[in-house]
Amino acid sequence: MTHILCKTTHIEDPGSKSFEVKIKRKMQEIFVVHKDCAFFAYYNKCPHTGATLEWQEDKFLDMDNALIQCATHDALFMIDSGECISGPCAGDALQALPLSIQDDEIHLDV
Ligand code: FES
What is the pTM of this model? Predict the structure, then answer.
């Protein structure tokens, strides 16, 4: 099933945005990161405790916009892979979701 999340221009580069979508009959919180003209989607769930990651609405990135940062205990994740490189869940990873871009829209393919 495909969900159209938003226009590509609705997320700054670098930037991030959260969404709520129905996946396998359940509403799920997810987020999309836009960085260097590429888009990445993950479940909004820290592998440490399952907490949501953002520190303000739609703010998932660290101060340098180089990594995804968990607001609860500051775990840092690679934007392109979701791998945790620092913090209490180092070595673990965010759960990625498949995206595609069609006609300037971001599609979530689940
Ligand atoms: S809940 Fe994310 S680092 Fe602890």
Answer: 0.97
